[in-house]
Amino acid sequence: MGRLVHFEIHVNDMERAKMFYGEVFGWTFEDWSDYAGMPYFGAMTGDAKELGINGALMQRQGASPEPGQALNGYACTIGVEDYDSTETRILNLGGKLALPKYALPGMAWQGYYIDTEGNTFGIHQPDEHAK
């Protein structure tokens, strides 16, 4: 035990968040609000036969993170096939740059962004030639 099995992204505007994550990463959503007793949408992040986990978008229950404050929680990093085109979609759909693309030498390209709800997340493109 101890393996990460689910994540929750707290959001202010559920429809805006569903559109952002759906358009950027191709996620689909299932309404689980009846189970949760609040707006709560399961996030299907890919094929169940592939490495990864599913999670949910959850209605935020408090104040949004203030810009520039230290991260309070986990930053999820999402694997992508094409870093640059994913970054373009993020920025075109209202996301903001938090930490620019950088090389993890011999392994990948990595960077961090802020979604439309003020949450920090990373993207990661494997590339053994990154430097």
Automatic annotation (TrEMBL):
All residue ranges annotated as the VOC domain in the record: 3-126
InterPro entries for the chain: Anthracycline_SecMetBiosynth, Glyas_Bleomycin-R_OHBP_Dase, Glyoxy/Ble-like_N, VOC_core
Pfam families: Ble-like_N (PF22677)
Transmembrane segments: none
Superkingdom of source: Bacteria
Coiled coil (residue ranges): none
Stated name of the protein: VOC family protein
Lineage: Bacteria, Bacillati, Bacillota, Bacilli, Bacillales
